[in-house]
Amino acid sequence: MKIIVSAGGTGGHLYPALALVEYIKTQDIKAEFLFVGTTDRLESQVVPQKGYAYKGLKVKGLVGNPLQKIKNAMIFVKSLKESKKILKEFQPDIVVGFGGYPSASIVLAAAKMNIPTMIHEQNSIIGLTNKILIKKVDKIVCCYEKAYNEFPHDKTVLLGNPRASVVTHQKMQDIHDIYNIPSSRKTVVIVMGSLGSSSVNKVMKEALRQMQYDAFDIVYVTGKNYYDEMKEELKDLNDSIHLVSYIDDMPSLIASCDLIVSRAGATTLAEITALGAASLIIPSPYVVANHQEYNAKELVDASAAHWILEKDLTASGFVKETRHLLSHEDVLKNLASHAKALGKPHACEDIYQEILKTLERK
């Protein structure tokens, strides 16, 4: 089987794509893969480093003033021609798009050439690229009920995010061992994405001061750019507050902590639900179409998480909510149980089977 996978721009598109490819390799050792992405974004560096063949397309979003939009549209037309060339050279059995502008180019070109196509939508709000592709593709895979209800049901399946499969099969470390925390103490992990959040950091400076004498330890991920500043300002806190700039093994912390406080990125929530973790979510309001709030709302509506919108976030409110959750074991267990019920631990397996079915129908 020969598969072209396209995922452009962000880790939210890229890492689910990589997870699926890694799984397919275990099922079909002869499978060949070609990644198509941008020439200058994350995927252009990560994919070649992992040893996969890679083609970059020069594409830009249809944003800016009218003149810029016209220029970007002309660039997109050129990318379609380049995509057709890539398709003729590689001759894939199927093209799978995970979002981002390059996905629009390569998937549209494949559809015009009658090559089987599939798209994957990670968020509850359908991205612009996938909106463009809805009528053109053979199959659509999504992760949230809200997205499923907006896609045509005759070709859409709700199978989840491939990262869910990865973390459920991963060997985990325990947060108590990693940070030398007594096993009897509860733990909270607070992480606002890999880069951190300046706005949340401001609130947490006071919140952490208030909680340093509570009967639980906190691992606070500042983000690499804010670590030195936060470490200096909070240098007088006791050793129950563990400041780190970045976490390499987030699934282990999600699986072993008592409460995870996080943003509502698609991959993060896929991991939280797959692992069945109790969570307090602070959706980022700085994302396209406010999609993190909609992602989080699906968990909150299913009693699988609590949340605080950033506009309502205060140090005193956060401390009160965190203390409430940590002092009510039944609430934590209920959140974890409902989160687990939403999880899609077999996402990779199910998506792979859907690929095989799509090829059979063609």
From TrEMBL:
Subcellular location: Cell membrane
GO biological process: carbohydrate metabolic process; cell division; cell wall organization; peptidoglycan biosynthetic process; regulation of cell shape
InterPro entries according to UniProt: GlcNAc_MurG, Glyco_trans_28_C, GlycoTrans_28_N
Pathway named in the protein's UniProt entry: Cell wall biogenesis; peptidoglycan biosynthesis
EC number: 2.4.1.227
Family: Belongs to the glycosyltransferase 28 family. MurG subfamily.
Membrane topology designation: Peripheral membrane protein
Cellular component aspect of the GO annotation: plasma membrane
Protein name: UDP-N-acetylglucosamine--N-acetylmuramyl-(pentapeptide) pyrophosphoryl-undecaprenol N-acetylglucosamine transferase
Keyword S-adenosyl-L-methionine recorded: no
Keyword Cell wall biogenesis/degradation annotated: yes
Residues annotated as binding UDP-N-acetyl-alpha-D-glucosamine: 10-12, 123, 194, 247, 292
NCBIfam families, A to Z: murG
A Pfam family: Glyco_transf_28
Domain annotation Glycosyltransferase family 28 N-terminal: ranges: 3-140
Keywords linked to the UniProt accession: Cell cycle, Cell division, Cell membrane, Cell shape, Cell wall biogenesis/degradation, Glycosyltransferase, Membrane, Peptidoglycan synthesis, Transferase
Function per UniProt: Cell wall formation. Catalyzes the transfer of a GlcNAc subunit on undecaprenyl-pyrophosphoryl-MurNAc-pentapeptide (lipid intermediate I) to form undecaprenyl-pyrophosphoryl-MurNAc-(pentapeptide)GlcNAc (lipid intermediate II).
Catalyzed reactions per annotation: di-trans,octa-cis-undecaprenyl diphospho-N-acetyl-alpha-D-muramoyl-L-alanyl-D-glutamyl-meso-2,6-diaminopimeloyl-D-alanyl-D-alanine + UDP-N-acetyl-alpha-D-glucosamine = di-trans,octa-cis-undecaprenyl diphospho-[N-acetyl-alpha-D-glucosaminyl-(1->4)]-N-acetyl-alpha-D-muramoyl-L-alanyl-D-glutamyl-meso-2,6-diaminopimeloyl-D-alanyl-D-alanine + UDP + H(+)
GO MF term list: UDP-N-acetyl-D-glucosamine:N-acetylmuramoyl-L-alanyl-D-glutamyl-meso-2,6-diaminopimelyl-D-alanyl-D-alanine-diphosphoundecaprenol 4-beta-N-acetylglucosaminlytransferase activity; undecaprenyldiphospho-muramoylpentapeptide beta-N-acetylglucosaminyltransferase activity
